[in-house]
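Hey everyone, long-time lurker, first post.

I ran two proteins through the pipeline my lab uses and got sequence/structure pairs for each. Pasting them in order. The first:
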Amino acid sequence: MDVDDEAIDTIAVQLTRLQRVRERTAAQIRTKDGVDPAAFAVLFRLLQDGPMRSGALADAVYSDASTVSRQVAHLVERELVRRMADPTDGRASVLVVTEHGRSVCERIRRRRHENLTRVTESWTPADRATFAELLRQFVDDFDRARPGMVAALRESHATITGTENSS
């Protein structure tokens, strides 16, 4: 195995490890406002991008509509998000972060900042900046490559299961 193969393997293993550590951590925490950690992304996206319809929100957080619908219901129930008539089409509604939701987002953002500062406390500011840029680049590149990866996996699965159309 060459150096590049080893690096790719290390990235894959560490991403899996990070996902598991984050899942364990998320299972152990809840904000005092009772916000499910899975709903954080929905709340933050609405705060960052502004009011939007549920379908657009699902696309923005790379999730399916039913999952986002459950998360939105959770946020509405806790009065962190409210539904309002869409100004461009009164028959539809958009989701809007409430003042209480903004306050909760700020507390979560502050706690996340403190936690990541704790994790990287022995790093130099230059190391943090380099990691931030490389991580952003990795996520952007992963997102761009995702459709091709999904297509290749589907093709591979079809070949393995014998469902490939040979016409």
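...and the second, right after it:
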Amino acid sequence: MIQEEHEDRRTRRTRQALKSAFVELILENSYDSVTILDVTNRADYNRGTFYKHFESKEALLKEIHDEFLQGIGEALLEPYEGLERIEATEVFPSILQLFEYIEGHKAEFLALSAVERGKMTVELFDRLRESMREDMRIEIEADAAPVDYEIMLSYQMSATVGVIMHWAEVNFKYSASYMAEQLITLVNSKIDHIAFMKKPNG
């Protein structure tokens, strides 16, 4: 049993080292230019070790991709494990954990975005929306104006993904806590009016 646990830990360490090396190389160069030899050299393993764990660099990328998106869904739900419902004013822990997860995996996020930026944006949107469809449901106040649930979800998730992508564009210069606070403020804000910067011809 102890031997099995030791081998499991060693396997996890090896796989993580290969993933980390791959992510670093994508960010330094580009996905297309990175070879398996590059990855094994960076991780200090041989090609045989790589093929023991992954059949190709495409398979390696897919595992990084799948793990990242799975973590996104888990980050949303973890603060509320065991609860049946929460008030709308209590969503901050979930939003904060989402941003903290991305902050903790920003190298993977940037690498995945670099490979197929547009696709990653869509998949992040889909993963968040799927979680809101399958794992929880937003209930609107009884006296609120009627709104189509799917349209509301699209609006909420588009806002969330837009803020996340902006955060990445500015190289994560703000803290996860600041970003979570900003998102909640934006979603709950009401526009007063729109001012036109160009003065009309008089």
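Reply from user beta_strand_b:
Welcome! Quick read of the second one: The mean pLDDT is 86. Residues 80 and 172 are 26 Å apart (CA to CA).
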